């Protein structure tokens, strides 16, 4: 499987967000990408981060989602589309998984919200495994993958070869950018990516926004814990990588024996 990880800039409007998504899809198709993932809540953008994000109605978001589905079918490209979804209960932070045929295969809601997101979003319930081209994968959204490793293990225990991790970690206004990937004096986030891979024996693909002060890079980490590739901090772009699926044995996850505790 060939994956694409889209480090996208912070959008200023729903229209810009959608256009950025479609542009990355065009680019991914030119590289024969099978499955493309975007940063957290990219449609219309992540709230609570001092970004200017418009309030959108469900009908507007549904129309944008329909356009992404049509482009997905046109390119025969699977898409992991993080977005918000307004409901009578509140706004969910979720991912829509779109098949290469342009069909919505399912959704994964963020079940563990960051404390700063409570009041902006509401938590979902339940977890899902997805499968495209015979490859099983899961999704853990930002804070889930950083602080709740069981969200990643859940997917690995059910045969996932890779877990995708849409995130928004950093700022456009103030902060410190790491001097190199895995910087021991930097934030812990990239080391958490290594842990999620090694403790489960799977690939971990983390996708961040392009930010002025970026706490972690868009990265692909191998089942052995090596950073196979990452996007330079602060630079928008598409990271394309071919997975060697036979390396993702999932052995640590398969040996997990909670009944012994």
Structure in words:
The mean pLDDT is 97. The longest helix has 18 residues, at 58-75. The chain contains 6 helices and 14 strands. It has a single domain (2-245), classed as 4-Layer Sandwich (Nitrilase/N-carbamoyl-D-aminoacid amidohydrolase), CATH 3.60.110. The chain is an alpha/beta fold and 261 residues long. The chain has helices at 14-30, 58-75, 143-147, 150-156, 189-198, 251-254, and strands at 2-7, 35-37, 78-86, 91-98, 104-109, 130-132, 135-139, 162-166, 170-171, 203-207, 213-214, 219-221, 227-230, 237-242. The strands form 3 sheets. It has a 6-stranded mixed beta sheet, covered by helices on one side. Strands 6-7-8-10-12-13 form a 6-stranded mixed beta sheet, covered by helices on one side. Strands 9-11 form a two-stranded antiparallel ribbon. Helix 1 packs parallel to helix 2 (58-75).
List the helices and strands and how they pair.
Layout: E1 2-7, H1 14-30, E2 35-37, H2 58-75, E3 78-86, E4 91-98, E5 104-109, E6 130-132, E7 135-139, H3 143-147, H4 150-156, E8 162-166, E9 170-171, H5 189-198, E10 203-207, E11 213-214, E12 219-221, E13 227-230, E14 237-242, H6 251-254
Organism: Desulfomicrobium baculatum (strain DSM 4028 / VKM B-1378 / X) (Desulfovibrio baculatus)
InterPro entries: Aliph_Amidase/BUP, C-N_Hydrolase, C-N_Hydrolase_sf
GO molecular function, one term: hydrolase activity, acting on carbon-nitrogen (but not peptide) bonds, in linear amides
Keywords, separated by commas or semicolons:
261 residues, alpha/beta, Nitrilase/N-carbamoyl-D-aminoacid amidohydrolase, six-stranded mixed β-sheet
């Amino acid at each position: 499987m060939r994956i694409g990880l889209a480090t996208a800039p912070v959008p200023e409007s729903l229209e810009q967000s959608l256009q950025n998504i479609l542009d990355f899809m065009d680019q991914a198709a030119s590289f024969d990408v099978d499955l493309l993932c975007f940063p957290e809540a990219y449609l219309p953008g992540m709230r609570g981060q001092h970004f200017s994000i418009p309030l959108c109605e469900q009908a507007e978001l549904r129309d944008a989602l329909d356009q992404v589905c049509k482009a997905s079918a046109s390119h025969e490209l699977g898409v992991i589309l993080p977005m918000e979804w307004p409901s009578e209960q509140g706004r969910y932070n979720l991912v829509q998984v779109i098949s290469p045929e342009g069909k919505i295969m399912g959704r994964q809601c963020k079940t563990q919200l960051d404390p700063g997101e409570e009041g902006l979003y509401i938590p979902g319930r339940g977890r899902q495994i997805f499968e495209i081209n015979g490859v099983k994968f899961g999704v853990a959204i930002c804070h889930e993958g950083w602080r709740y490793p069981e969200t990643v293990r859940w997917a690995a225990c059910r045969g996932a070869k890779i877990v995708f991790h849409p995130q928004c970690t950093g700022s456009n206004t103030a902060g410190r950018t790491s001097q190199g990937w895995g910087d021991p004096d930097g934030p812990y986030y990239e080391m958490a990516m290594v842990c999620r891979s090694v403790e489960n024996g799977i690939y971990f693909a983390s996708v961040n926004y392009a930010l002025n002060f970026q706490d972690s890079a868009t990265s692909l980490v191998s089942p052995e814990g090596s950073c196979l590739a990452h996007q330079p901090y602060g630079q928008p772009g598409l990271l394309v990588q071919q997975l060697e699926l036979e390396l993702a044995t999932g052995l640590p996850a398969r040996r997990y024996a909670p009944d012994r505790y």
